[in-house]
TrEMBL record, chains A, B:
Annotated localization: Cytoplasm
Keywords: Actin-binding, Coiled coil, Cytoplasm, Phosphoprotein
Domain IMD residues, every copy: 1-254
Protein family per UniProt: Belongs to the MTSS family.
Main location: cytoplasm
Pfam families (alphabetical): IMD (PF08397)
Protein name: Metastasis suppressor 1
Native organism taxonomy: Eukaryota, Metazoa, Chordata, Craniata, Vertebrata
Amino acid sequence: MEAVIEKECSALGGLFQTVIADMKSSYPIWEDFITKAGKMQSQLRATAVAVTAFLDAFQKVADLATNSRGGTRDIGSALTRMCLRHRSIEAKLKQFSMCFLEGLINPLQEQMEDWKRGVNTLDKDHAKEYKRARQEIKKKSSDTLKLQKKAKKADNLGRGDIQPQLNSAMQDVSDKYILLEETEKHALRRALIEERQRFCCFVTMLRPVVDEEISMLAEVTHLQTISEDLKALTSDPHKLPPASEQVILDLKGSDYGWSYQTPPSSPSTTMSRKSSMCSSLNSVNSSDSRGSSGSHSHSPSSSSSSSS
Amino acid sequence: MEAVIEKECSALGGLFQTVIADMKSSYPIWEDFITKAGKMQSQLRATAVAVTAFLDAFQKVADLATNSRGGTRDIGSALTRMCLRHRSIEAKLKQFSMCFLEGLINPLQEQMEDWKRGVNTLDKDHAKEYKRARQEIKKKSSDTLKLQKKAKKADNLGRGDIQPQLNSAMQDVSDKYILLEETEKHALRRALIEERQRFCCFVTMLRPVVDEEISMLAEVTHLQTISEDLKALTSDPHKLPPASEQVILDLKGSDYGWSYQTPPSSPSTTMSRKSSMCSSLNSVNSSDSRGSSGSHSHSPSSSSSSSS
């Protein structure tokens, strides 16, 4: 009986030690994860900054198209919508990057310290309990041995009143073994739960980050539509759209302020020529009530409303 | 008649010049776009490298969970799937970044040179045609003026045979004006088409990049399911799953090679203790045919098949 329990307890204790050793040896993996996550996060942050600058430049190209006279107002409007959708993606990227740092990297780093303390406590507690249980078994066993000797002696003398005492002592040893086994099982269960909790904790931190990542997906649908709009709008690059032909017709016979400036013979007059064109352009805009070809400034608020 | 056409031609020519000037003045905007796009692209590339390193570290954490004894095999498997999905996103990110450079930034840079040449040619051609048409009008007008004087003189002398010649000359002037107007309209149309083509060309380069982006974001869909799996798997971190309880039961009464190593009194014995545990762990794995708690190495191919 004792031999079987002894073997079982040894197996339980051995597995306990392996689990503890596994947890202790896993720190470099977690630390590597935190390091690489930190590097990726700072890259994401730098990318978000680059995206902001890129989208500013993109919006200027969209404005060019919106304000040009070549019938590209619709293209400009679609490009503006494309830009605005990317602003949402940019915002989501920043949120994602922030959540990655504050929801995963930093808490995991702090958690690591708790984990280290937790495992050390488990290990120490187990060693203490094991030692105490062992000592109790040793004491009870030696008590039993003494009683057995006493019983043998008493038996030889013909006195049988020690037997109940001996039985009780042997029961005590057996009980202590069962207690040791329960202690070992309890310790092993605690170690296994501790190990499992780490991953549960990790997943709890990871999921909100993944959710942020997923929310970037929501913007895709819109990109698809805008991309198709752009395809349709640019399907015939060698032909002017009716609106632009209209500009030419309107100009003929209109009282627009356009006037041809004789090209200068020397480059020194470029400035004055430019400024005179600029003023004639402005006079067109002020008189162009329909706004089909004027260079009205494209404000973000009007872009925003057109994209909804 | 001439005065009206003169005004119209001046308006057409003025708009032509404005369109040309707009195109010429837009280069800084396009160049800024190319610069910012280049910076963003190199950030994306650097991010992709950081993502690769991060996913390697992430996979190691997933392997920890898969190989641990705390009943986290399912969590490890879900984390591996999460990692594999991110490998797809990583691959798409690299493709996107490559497409951004090779499909948009580089071709746009080259296109800029064509645009500059194209606009200069348009401008020169127009100036030449305008000058020639003007000279022809001037010549025809002076011819008409001469004929008018001649006709007056002839009229005074009572001779009326110059009138048909004069009519024809006046018709010539009128025709030349109409030709000038057509020339101006043609030039304006070419300039407007040139301007519009730029944006069509830009959109043609942009769309495949956006398509790559969309396909990258589309990978995110798969994350949702895995995230929900992970949530379910880690819903009760304080309880061992049945599989782990089974490990404890199996260990009891089994002939596993686990055996408890008395904790060392000095750190010098750590190595030998570790190696003995390692060998006992190996013996477990070799005898554990069900593989419910062994530390089988988690190969990428098996991860891949479990994620499908």
